[in-house]
Amino acid sequence: MPREIGNLPYLARLAFATNNLVGVAPVTIFNMSALKEISLLNNSLSGSLPSRIDLSLPNVETLNLGINSFSGTIPSSITNASKLSDLELGVNLFSGFIPNTFVNMADNYLTSSTPELSFLSSLENCKKLKVLILTGNPLDGILPKSIGNLSLSLETILMANCSISGNIPQVVGNLGNLLVLELGGNNLTGPIPITFSQLQTLQALGLTRNKLAGPITDELCHLARLHSLVLQGNKFSGSIPSCLGDIPITIGGLKNLQQMFLEYNRLEGSIPESFGDLSSLEVLDLSKNKISGAIPASLQKLLYLKHLNLSFNKLEGEIPRGGPFANLTAKSFMGNELL
Fold first, then answer.
1. What strands, in cross-sheet order, belong to the sheet with 22-24?
2. Each residue's pLDDT tens digit, 262-272
3. What is the DSSP code string of 146-208?
4. How far apart are CA 317 and CA 313, in angstroms?
5. Which terminus in the chain has less CB density within 10 A, N or C?
6. Which candidate, 200, 305, 216, 207, places its Cα nearest to that of 253?
7. Computed from CA positions of residues 22, 160, 231, 286, in that sequence, does the dihedral angle turn out positive or negative?
8. Residues near 83 by Cβ (< 8 Å), separated by ≥ 6?
């Protein structure tokens, strides 16, 4: 990118996304006061942001630098860019503390200035916040109760692989318009909050590879729009709630559930017959638990089932032959006492 591009004083839109641009992005582009949009997504550009980006780009509405090699700190002055509505900085080399703003900053090297992730409190006044993506940053803190005070417009929280510990606050249930909640790959402990039943719009819940324990709460059965439930790699114990599949009797919902991952836990009891009512189910993984009893014949009704893994449990009896079972291999059932 030539430095001379900064000599276009009336340029309002600079969009070079998804090309093969390399090298350092000219500092002149961050001093073009007429610019409303800068989109350099998905190139191989490097460089850093100016310390007073609010003054050098007073009219910018969209700043998209994702999937590049930009580095340095994210200036706190970015919070003063009053017209900025779309900020994408994910998959770069930014480091330092997270400024008091909201952005997509996944896969950088950002940390929190306090163990309580205090930057979340600063987002309470962002009434139009819809997406919060911090996946892959070493935040190394605990989820504060202030997370429950975020905007009711919030639809997506992606905070996987962030070294977050402690319990999931009950106040997460206040975020009644969430569609996606992904907290996998952290060090979260304690039970699943019973307030999750308040997340009536939730479509995907990911809590994989944490240290969560206790039973899989019946409250999950009230999430009628849920289509992806991923809980493997925790310490859950007790029986699988029969209501997870008891669509016509218990909740009249979950008919859209497509994926259920519950492997690597300590679940006991039998597989509910009502699992056969999950008519949209494509993936069911219950491997490496302590589930006993027979495989319900009702699972033969799962016509869309593409992946079934029941290995390394305490199942016994015969393997059903109809429906999706006709295409399954012995690997799906090994480590049991099945015929």
1. 22-24, 44-47, 69-72, 93-97, 109-111
2. 888 888 888 88
3. GGGGS-TT--EEE--SS--EEEPPGGGGG-TT-SEEE--SSEEEEPPPGGGGG-TT--EEE--
4. 13
5. C
6. 200
7. positive
8. 36, 58, 59, 60, 61
Is 60 exceeded by the pLDDT of residue 130? Answer: yes
In whole angstroms, give the CA distance from residue 85 to residue 240: 44
Q: Is the CB of residue 307 less than 8 Å from the CB of residue 282?
A: yes
Encoding tokens for residue 4? 């001379």
At residue 112, does pLDDT exceed 70?
Answer: no
- In whole angstroms, how far apart are CA 232 and each of 168, 184, 213, 289? 17, 9, 11, 10
- Residue 91 CA to residue 109 CA, distance in Å, equals 10
**Per-residue pLDDT tens over the stretch 17-58:** 999 999 999 988 888 889 899 999 999 999 988 888 877 888
CA-based R_g, the chain, Å: 24
Q: Which residue has the tokens 């641009």?
A: 21
Identify the DSSP state of 316.
Answer: E
Q: Which residues pair with 24 in a beta bridge?
A: 46
Tell whether the torsion through CA atoms of 68, 73, 76 and 77 is positive or negative.
negative
Q: Phi and psi dihedrals of 147, rounded to 5? A: -65, -25
Q: Could you write out the DSSP letters of every residue in 68-115?
A: SEEEE---GGGGG-TT--EEE--SSEEEEEPPSS--B--SSEEE-SST
Torsion of CA 297, 298, 303, 307, to 10 degrees: -70
Q: Assess contact for 302 and 276: CB atoms under 8 A.
A: yes
Q: Which residues contact 40 (CB under 8 A, 6 or more apart)?
A: 14, 16, 17, 21, 25, 64, 65, 68
Residues 242 and 267: their CA atoms lie apart, in Å, by 13
